[in-house]
Amino acid sequence: MGLWMSVLVAAISAASVAAPESGNFPGSYFDSVGKTMLQQRAMDRWPGPTQLVHGWRAGAFDDDAKIGLLLGASASHDPVLIPLYRESVTSANPRLRMAAAYGYRDLLGDALPNLAGGVDPVAATALAGEMDAVAATLQTRPLVEMWLQSALATEGKSMPGWKGTMLHRPAGICFRAVEQVLDFDDVRYVMIAYRTAENRGNRATLLRLLEAMTLKRFFDTPDGQSQGWGVEDLDEALAAGDSYVSYWLDVRCVDGVDSMLRASFAEMNARVAQPRLDSSFDIWLRLLRWGPPTWRAMVARQLYAFGGQWPQLSILQAESKTDQASWQRLLGWYGVLDSRGAGRARVPR
To answer: What is the reported pLDDT for 9?
Structure first.
């Protein structure tokens, strides 16, 4: 073992990649409580995915530590970790196989497997083959595009020039995965999928994702608590989305999201030259406090990139009680929980 690798292994071991919650895996308590606690710590305190891979390869972890790592590091949704799941799913250790199957699905943002009967050798072999195919696809395509392709396939459509594997899932599962793995830089893929889709429900969901990524409002909330959404409301939102997508894809020919964010900030009377630099931290924090619920997940991810706390927020379920509680906890961490959103904000280092 070289000197550099020895130092790396020692550093990772000292970083305490501990996972006491994995003692409750598998089971309903881990699903509902343990996983959230473990992944919060993993994203806030653990070494990054590439470092974890190096530590694994260097023999820094025993089987118990590997189980915790497979369950916690999946929150990063980083495909660099897939070889670790591939190696573990055929292990002789039954708990390691289960952690590999569970963590791999979670890494992708997929629906979680039922582990009541464990992972038998036949299922392990089949899953290993899927991992190989997915890993090969993700060498040239981003994870978000694979899920968008899978969603479009449910209506007989395809992302332009798609080559590679996809997962046969209902559209709802595909979009739930998309929102979990989404990054601001994926905006062009979502716009193309929105333009390609014909199913109104799918287009409406994609437009919700675009709202969060571009900090725009396409869906106007109807006046009055008793008011609901109707066909005309949806048509207006989709028409606004069509115009927006056409402008940025065809007129401006923009690949990235920064120009869109600058335009959105300008509409909010915030002039920001580089919207994703640390100097704009205060603006993003105000958006987390006062912005629409559908923006919160992506806003919180940007704050995390500045050094904040990892958010457990959803775009598509932003109005749920679970998300409201997570949002309140996050505001408390940043120190902006009083009635005016004032106070001393916690600026990450």
So the answer is: 52
Which of 209, 212, 185, 202 is CA-nearest to residue 291? 212
Task: Compute the half-sphere exposure of residue 239: CA atoms within 13 Å on the CB side of its CA.
Answer: 7
- Count other Cβ atoms within 10 Å, centred on residue 68: 24
Cβ pair 248, 262 in contact under 8 A: no
* CA–CA distance, 320 with 142 (Å, rounded to integer): 29
3-state secondary structure the chain: CCHHHHHHHHHHHHCCCCCHHHHHCCCHHHHHHHHHHHHHHHHHHCCCHHHHHHHHHCCCCCHHHHHHHHHHHHHHCCHHHHHHHHHHCCCCCHHHHHHHHHHHHHHHCCCCCCCCCCCCHHHHHHHHHHHHHHHHHCCCCCHHHHHHHHHHHCCCCCCCCCCCCCCCCCHHHHHHHHHHHCCHHHHHHHHHHHHHCCCHHHHHHHHHHHHHHHCCCCCCCCCCCCCCCCHHHHHHHHHHHHHHHHHHHHHCCCCCCHHHHHHHHHHCCCCCCCCCCHHHHHHHHHHHHHCCHHHHHHHHHHHHHCCCCCCCCCCCCCCCHHHHHHHHHHHHHHCCCCCCCCCCCCCCC
Amino acid identity at 241? G
Rounded to whole angstroms, the Cα distance separating 78 from 164 reads: 18
Q: Which residue, chain included where needed, has tokens 């996809």?
A: 166
Q: How far is CA 136 from the centre of its chain?
A: 21
**Nearest CA-CA partner of 219 in 202, 207, 231:** 207
Residues in the chain with pLDDT < 50? Answer: 1, 3-4, 8, 14-15, 223-226, 339-344, 347-349
Asked whether 158 and 152 are in contact (CB, 8 A), the reply is: yes
Look at residue 344 in the predicted model and tell me its pLDDT: 43
Residue type, 224: G
The reported pLDDT for the residue numbered 6 is: 53
How many residues does the structure list for the chain? 349
pTM score: 0.91
